[in-house]
Every structure is written in structure tokens, then in C-alpha cells.
Specification:
Blueprint: H1 16-43, H2 46-72, H3 86-115, H4 122-149, H5 153-182, H6 187-214, H7 224-232, E1 237-249, E2 252-261, H8 267-282, E3 286-292, H9 301-319
Parallel strand pairs: 2-3
Antiparallel strand pairs: 1-2
């Protein structure tokens, strides 16, 4: 058997647009990160330093996202029969976690600087943050356009990183302006704490979404009861049970179900009808349906109850 024959479906993500987008984003981010670190140290601005720390996390996150996308292009094998699609979700979870940790660090440092204000070079702070604003606007637009063309949780997490960066740049500019006109140095830690809160919200959303996929929960866009009902409407299907539905990656879904069938209907026709229903109505292309006879595969009390219910229905019809 050939190595790529372990599965009948192509569990691979070929996302050329996402690759190009992340490469461009990574190089621009790496360049500006170096600029912002130097500027933050020279100006002694916490808002600028917190933004540069966030930019460092962006570089790491983008690197991890690039690895995830290239891993997703590797074909399934005897050990990883679903391929490497799930690595995308693991990378996204780590990216979200990094965002949350950085946000907490910014908040803690902001409190410290509230208690012990430090002098700031607002002119340098303003110049660096203005350059950062332009860079982040460009990167946010590039990532937003990529998300519309190809669904990828890593690109989404990268987008949240840069939305945070964009807000950081705006925050730093506001902070520098307020310090210039008022002379109040505490605007710097205040703005940095607000930025930290926004970054934390973005990180939490990514953590939640990737966690739900890792826990193999039913994707939020689908209603499991509705899917079960549609399968039950297929001619020859008498009951649907042992049903599981989960996402392998952000847009790769799998479904398994056991069905009690009417022996008078050809089982292959039932499977074909179920698969067509799932594909046409829900876009689910990977499904495993097990045909069962309640007398042979009763599933304990469940099957017995199903048979009792059938007998009651038949007796009612006879009586009528």
C-alpha cells in the first residue's frame, strides 16, 4: 500500500494565499520589531515597549503559523491518518495563550509605572508609533483580505495580533500627544494597560475557538439536532444514534453515526442518500455511517427500547 492511501479523502490544506500573506507579514513585522525595540529603549516609553513586546510575540506567532501551514500540506500516513491539519489548531492555541500572557505582563508593568512614574522622550515615542501605525494598517488590511479568500485560524490569530498592534500604535500616539500637552507621565502606563486589555480579549477569543476544536466539540455554526433530523428523514433510516461531529481543522469536518435501517431498502442507497444530504446541505464531505439492525446490534437498552417502540407502533396500525 502506498503511503498516501491511508485515507480516501485528501486531508491536506493547500493555502497558497495564506502562505504568501504570512511571509510578507512576517518579514515586515520582523523589521519593524527591531525598530520599535530600539525606539522603546531610547525613549523609555512603556507603551512603546509593550507594543514592541507584542511585536516580538507577533514574530514568534507568525513563525509558528508558517510551520502550521506547511505541516498542513503534508499528506496522511500510517501514523497520522488525518494528516497534520490539527497542528494549525495547536499553533493557534499557543498564539492565543501568548497574547493573553503578554497582556497580563503589560498590565502588571503599567501598575508598577503608575506607582513609580518614569521620564519619557515623547518626540521619539511619537515618531516610532507613527511609523508603526502605517505598518500595522498595511498588515491588517493584507491579513483581512487573505481571511476573505481562505479560512485559516492561524491567519485569524495573526489578524488579531495586528489589530492589537494597530490599537497599540494609536494608543501610543494618543499617549505621546497627551503627555506633550499636559506633562502628565501617567498617561503612558494608562494607555498601555488599555492596550493590554484589548490584546487579552483577542487572545481569549483565539484560545476559546482553538480549545473547542481540540476538545472535538460540535462547531458552533452547526446544529447537531438538525443534522440528526435530516439524516433520519432519509428513506430507509429508522433511527440515528452514536452520532459524533467535530472539526479536524478550521474548515475540515468529520461526522460518524450509527443508523438502524429498514431491511427492505438497499443499504448502499441509504449511505449514498445520507452522504449527499450531508454534503449538499452542510458541506460535510467526510462522514462514516454504520448500518445496523436493532435485533443484531441493539446497543443494550437503547436498542430494546427502539424495538419496543416499533412493536407498539405496529400494533396500533393493526388495531386501526
Amino acid at each position: 500500500m502506498k503511503e498516501y492511501d491511508y485515507h480516501h479523502l485528501h486531508h491536506v490544506k493547500e493555502q497558497s494565499k495564506s502562505k504568501k500573506t504570512l511571509w510578507v507579514t512576517l518579514l515586515l513585522t520582523l523589521f519593524f520589531t527591531i525598530v520599535e525595540i530600539i525606539g522603546g529603549i531610547l525613549s523609555n516609553s512603556l507603551a512603546l515597549l509593550s507594543d514592541s513586546a507584542h511585536m516580538i510575540s507577533d514574530v514568534l506567532a507568525l513563525g509558528l503559523s508558517m510551520v502550521a501551514i506547511y505541516m498542513a500540506t503534508r499528506p496522511p500516513n500510517a501514523r497520522f491518518t488525518f494528516g497534520y491539519l490539527r497542528f494549525e489548531i495547536i499553533a493557534s492555541f499557543l498564539n492565543g495563550l501568548a497574547l493573553a500572557i503578554i497582556a497580563v505582563g503589560i498590565f502588571v508593568e503599567g501598575v508598577r509605572r503608575f506607582l513609580n512614574p518614569e521620564p519619557i522622550d515623547f518626540k521619539l515615542m511619537l515618531i516610532i508609533s507613527s511609523i508603526g501605525l502605517v505598518v500595522n494598517v498595511v498588515l491588517t488590511l493584507v491579513l483581512s483580505r487573505s481571511m476573505k479568500e481562505e479560512e485559516n485560524l492561524n491567519v485569524q490569530s495573526a489578524l488579531w495580533h495586528f489589530i492589537g498592534d494597530l490599537l497599540s500604535s494609536v494608543g501610543v500616539i494618543i499617549s505621546a500627544t497627551l503627555i506633550y500637552f499636559t506633562g502628565l507621565q501617567w498617561f503612558d502606563p494608562l494607555i498601555s494597560m488599555v492596550i493590554g486589555g484589548i490584546i487579552f480579549i483577542g487572545g481569549w477569543k483565539i484560545i476559546k475557538e482553538s480549545y473547542l476544536i481540540l476538545m472535538e466539540s460540535v462547531p458552533e455554526r452547526f446544529n447537531l439536532d438538525e443534522i440528526r433530523s435530516d439524516i433520519a428523514k432519509v428513506e430507509g433510516v429508522e433511527d440515528v444514534h452514536e452520532m459524533h461531529f467535530w472539526a479536524i481543522s478550521s474548515d475540515h469536518y468529520s461526522l460518524t453515526a450509527h443508523v438502524f435501517i429498514n431491511n427492505k431498502v438497499q443499504p448502499f442507497c441509504i449511505i449514498l442518500a445520507i452522504n449527499e444530504t450531508l454534503k449538499e446541505k452542510y458541506g460535510i464531505e467526510h462522514s462514516t455511517i454504520q448500518m445496523e439492525n436493532a435485533h443484531i446490534h441493539p446497543h443494550g437498552e437503547y436498542g430494546k427500547e427502539f424495538l419496543r417502540h416499533q412493536e407498539e407502533e405496529q400494533s396500533k396500525l393493526v388495531t386501526v
